[in-house]
Amino acid sequence: MILKTLGFVVFFALAAVALGTADPELETCRHQCRVQMAFDRQQREACLDKCERYIQEKEGRQEERGGGSSGRREEEGRGGEDDNPYVFQPRHFRTAHRSQQGRFSVLPRFTERSNQFEGIENFRFGILEVESKTFVAPNHLDADLIGLVAEGEGTLDIIQKNKKKSYDIRVGSIVFIPAGATSYLVNTDNNNKLVIIKLIQTISTPGRFEFFFGTGRNSFLRAFKSSILEAAYDESKETIQRVLRGRDDSPFIQVSDEQLKSLRKESDTIWPFKTDKSSSSKPVDIFKHKSVSNNYGQLFEVDNDDFKELGDIEVAFANITRGGMLGPLFNTRATKLAFVVDGKGWAQMACPQVSSQTERSEEGAIPTYETVNAQLRPGTLFVIPPGNPYVSIASQDDNLQIVCFDINADNNERVALAGKNNLYSNMDDVAKEVSFGVSSKLVDKVFENDDDLELFSKGPEWQQSEDRADQ
Ligand SMILES: *[C@@H]1O[C@H](CO)[C@@H](O)[C@H](O)[C@H]1NC(C)=O
What is the rounded distance in angstroms from the CA atom of residue 340 to the CA atom of residue 53? Predict the structure, then answer.
C-alpha cells in the first residue's frame, strides 16, 4: 500500500512537470485517482479532492506572482496568509456546478486545511450564484442548510411534509432548508445576480454532503432499470424516457419572461391568507434585527430566539463604516465564519496555536501569541475560533460588509476588550494594579468604559498596520 501510494505520488509529480497547462494536469490527476484499484470510495474522493487542491493552489501561486501584489504581501508582515489556516480566499473554493446561468462553489472540508478544525468538521461553506431570469432545478441535500441572501432577489419553494411553501427572498433573508426537503428557486430580477451564502451542516458522514436532483437528464430516477420505472409509473418506457430527457443536465435553467411572471406570482408571502400559519421556517429578514449601532458600524444578529431552525447557529451581518473598526473582542464559545460580501479591509487575530502546529507544545502551557493577518476583500472567509481575540478594520474607502455564521452560538458571549463594558473595566482596582503592575488610575486611562463605543470604534491609519503594541 505504501509503495503504491508512493508510486502514485511520484507519477503525479512527474505529470505535474510534464504538462504545462492546468486542465490536462487536473484530468491526469483525476484519472490516476479513478484507476487506483486499492482505493475505496473515501480514499478515491480524498484523492480527487487532493487533485483539485493542488491545481487551485498552483493557480493561486500563479495569480499572486502575476498579480503584482508584492506591496500587500509585505504589509501583511509575519503570520501572513500562507502561514495560517484561518484565511480562505476565492481560489480556495471549488466549483461544484457551473454554467453560463449560475454557479455553486464550496470550500473543501475544514479538516482538510487543518486538524485544528475538528470542532467544525460537520460544516461546509458554499456560495450559490444565479444569473437573472434563471431557475435552479429541484433538489434535496443529505444535510441541513442555512442560507443568507447577499445579493439580488428571488422566489424560493420548499416541499416538505407533503406541502409546498413559496417564499420571496431578498438581500438579508435567512432561509433554512432541512435535510431531505426538496427546494427550487428562481432569480426573479431582470438584471441582477442572486447570491446566497450557505452554511451546510452534514448529518451523516462528517463534512460530506451530496445533491440529489429529481428532474431532467441527471435525475436520480435514471439510476433505476426502465422496467422498474415502467412498473412504478405504469407508463411506457418511451414516455418515461421522454420526460426524463426533456432538458440537459445543468441545474441552472434560463426561463422566459412569461415563466418568470408565473413563478414569481406563486409566492405565498404576497398573499398572507395563503400562508400556512404552522410554517415556522419562513425566511427571516436579518435587517430587522439590529443589535448594535453607532457612527462606526452596525451589527445585525439572528439566532434561534428569532428563527428556531437555526439551532445553535447564529447569523450576523456587520456593516463596518469606512475607517471604522470592530473589536478587539473574543467569543466565549462560538467559532465564527466571517465572510466578506463587500468592501475591503483587514483583520487581525491573536493566536496561540500557529506555532504549535508543527511542534505541538504542552497543552495548557503559557503560550506566546502570534499575529494572524487577513487581508479582507469580497470573497474572503476568515475563521475565528472561540477565545481568540480579533479585530476587523474597514478601509478608508468603503464600508466593510461581513456575513457571519457563528457555530456553537448557544450561550456564546461576545467579550469586548475595548469600549463599552470591556473586560478590563470589570476588574477590581487592586486586581488591575497587581496584574498590570501599574496604578489602577493608569490602567483606567487606557481601559475606561466608554458607553458611546460599543463594539465599533474609529480604526487605525492604514500605514500603521505593521505596528504591534510591543514595538
Ligand atoms: C451600511 O452602512 C451605511 C452607512 O455607513 C449605509 O449607508 C448602508 O446602507 C449600510 N448597508 C447595509 C447593507 O446595511
Answer: 22
Tell me the sheet residues that pair with 456: 326
- CA 173 to CA 149: how far, in whole Å? 5
* DSSP for 347-379, written as a single string: EEEEESSSGGGTS-PPTTS----EEEEEEE-TT
- Are 384 and 316 within 8 A, CB to CB? no
Q: Is the dihedral of CA 326, 332, 334, 335 positive or negative?
A: positive
pTM of the model: 0.79
Expressed in angstroms and rounded, the spacing between residue 93 Cα and the centre of ligand 1 is 28
Do both 324 and 186 map to the same domain? no
The residue nearest atom 12 of ligand 1, judged by CA position, is 319
Residue 270 and residue 293 in one domain: no
Question: Which residue, chain included where needed, has cell 469586548?
Answer: 416
Nearest CA to ligand 1 atom 2: 319
**SS3 of residue 435 by DSSP:** helix
Does the C-beta of 321 come closer than 6 Å to ligand 1? yes
For residues 300 and 268, state if they share a domain.
no
Shared domain for 190 and 316, answered yes or no, is no
Per the listing, cell 475607517 goes with 323
pLDDT per residue over 272-330, tens digit each?
444 444 455 789 999 999 889 999 999 999 999 989 999 999 999 999 999 999 999 99
pLDDT tens column, 446-466: 898 888 889 899 999 765 445
User: Looking at the structure, do residues 266 and 293 belong to the same domain, yes or no?
Assistant: no
319 lines ligand 1 (CB under 6 A): yes
Kindly state whether residues 266 and 343 are assigned to the same domain.
no
297 and 430 belong to one structural domain:
yes
* Domain-embedded: residue 283: no
What is the maximum span of the chain, computed from C-alpha positions, in angstroms?
Answer: 89
User: What percent of the residues of the chain are helix, what percent strand, and what percent coil, each to the nearest 5?
Assistant: 30, 35, 35
What CATH number does the domain containing 147 carry? 2.60.120.10
Task: Provide the domain limits for residue 101.
Answer: 2-275
